[in-house]
Each structure stands twice: as C-alpha cells, then as structure tokens.
Design goal:
With 256 residues, the chain is α+β, with helices and mostly antiparallel strands.
C-alpha cells in the first residue's frame, strides 16, 4: 500500500518537517519505493513535484525537504505500485481543472472489479491506475450534479464527494485526499491519522529519522495547522485515528 500526507493551515506554512519523515518511508524505513509526489497551493496557482524514483533517494524529494515552500494546503503521496506500471504518469497526486480551479487527488489502497463500475464521460485518465480512474469518476459525478458553474456552497460539494467515497470503499481499500486548494477532504477506509497543532505549541520528534522541532520557534499564537497521514509521523504527540468510513473536511486548518 501507499502512504498519504496532507496539511491544512490558516497561514502559509512549510511542510519540511513532516515530509522529512514521509520521504524516509519511500524506500528506506518503508516499502513505498515506486515514486512520490507533492502539491503545494499558492493562491490560484500550485506547485506540483513528482518523481518515479524512491523518495528516500530522490534529488527532488531532498529539495522539498530542504526548501521551505509555504502553503495553506498540501497533499503528498509515496507509492507502492499495485495497479499500473512505475512511471511518472502513474505517480500521485493527480490534478485536474474544474470550475476554474486546480483539484488535486491522492489515493492509498487497491480497488477490485472497478473498470465497469467506474464509467467516465468528461475527465479521462492519463495513466492506467485505479486511483486516477476513481479521481476522474469523482469529478464526473460532481460535474453532472452541480453543473458547469462553481456552486456557492463548496462544503456541499465535498459532502457529496464523501458520499461517493462510500461507494468506492465497497470496491476495496480506499483512503484518499482531495483538495481544491481551499478545502481539504480526507476519507478513511482503514488507515488515516490526524493531528492539529495550535497554541500552546510543543516539541515533536519524527519516528523515521533523527529530527526534532520546537514549534514555538516557528509559529505565532494564532497559527493552526492540521496534518493528516496514513501512519503517525511523530512518536511524542497524540495522533487520532480515523474510523472506517469517516471523512474529515478541513478549511485553513479547522474542521468544517
């Protein structure tokens, strides 16, 4: 299986610390060596970095680890391939444009008997993974339900997506993250954990590498940062495990 990492914050924040732990799992402390990707949102634009090589050895991953790109919304993924060959077009996260916004999606798990059930009309996959097909199917259904114009109530859109995820969960393991750059939706089948960091901030130490941080030195009292990952990334903080079929919708670090 793959591993996911997402962040939602109320101020532009870098994800260097969390990503430093995740990248080690991409071939060194974990088996997820079949590529990695990460998407940062900045206003209406986004930066999307991918590599089909293991993240633990990737020069691109080292850039992400060392270069503090600040964003309010981030999705990252390290891949252990099960559907589709190891190549750039099959590397998560996947992105598409809908209603003039860039949407980003990443999936952890494996679906079965999905080809006939996930019929698409508008959003065509570039690669050949079950994950990208599921993403295209979600966007097709959203487009058909809400139309060509962006709805005023975007929370209702993501609530509808969460219901669609219930159907995808019937096809197999389906942990996923989806964002339009403002809202971040996480959906759990078996393994997703989250933590919200806010004042009073404390120190944290990564599980996968010898690295610690004192968040008091890098934050203000008003900062709120929620991190979601497949497995906890630190060993001295309290992470919360999501339940089967649970979804979590965040906007600027806060659940809505």
């Amino acid at each position: 299986m793959c591993e996911l990492l997402g962040m939602s914050a109320n101020v532009p924040t870098d994800i260097c610390f969390s990503f430093s732990g995740l990248m080690e799992r991409g071939g060194r402390t974990g088996p997820h060596k079949d590529g990695f990707g990460i998407t940062f949102y900045e206003g209406k634009g986004f930066r999307n970095f991918k590599d089909a090589d293991p993240s633990c050895d990737s020069a691109i991953a080292k850039l992400i680890r060392d270069y503090p790109i600040k964003s309010c919304t981030v999705i990252s993924h390290i891949r252990q391939a099960n559907r589709g060959r190891i190549c750039l077009e099959n590397t998560h996260p996947f992105t598409r444009c809908l209603w003039g916004k860039n949407w980003t999606f990443a999936h952890n798990g494996q679906l079965s008997n999905y080809q006939k059930k996930l019929t698409i009309k508008y959003h065509v996959p570039i690669g050949n993974t079950d994950s990208e097909l599921a993403f295209c199917w979600l966007l097709d259904n959203v487009f058909e339900k809400f139309g060509r114009s962006k709805p005023k109530n975007m929370k209702a859109v993501f609530t509808y997506v969460a219901k669609l995820c219930d159907s995808l969960r019937e096809l197999g393991v389906y942990n996923m993250m989806l964002t339009d750059g403002e809202y971040l939706l996480a959906y759990c089948t078996n393994n997703l954990h989250w933590i919200t960091r806010k004042a009073p901030f404390a120190k944290a130490s990564l599980i996968d590498t010898e690295m610690s941080i004192d968040f008091n030195q890098h934050t203000t009292p008003n900062d709120i940062v929620t991190v979601i990952s497949t497995q906890p990334l630190t060993h001295n903080e309290r992470w919360h495990k999501m339940a089967v079929g649970e979804s979590k919708l965040l906007k600027f670090g806060v659940e809505v």
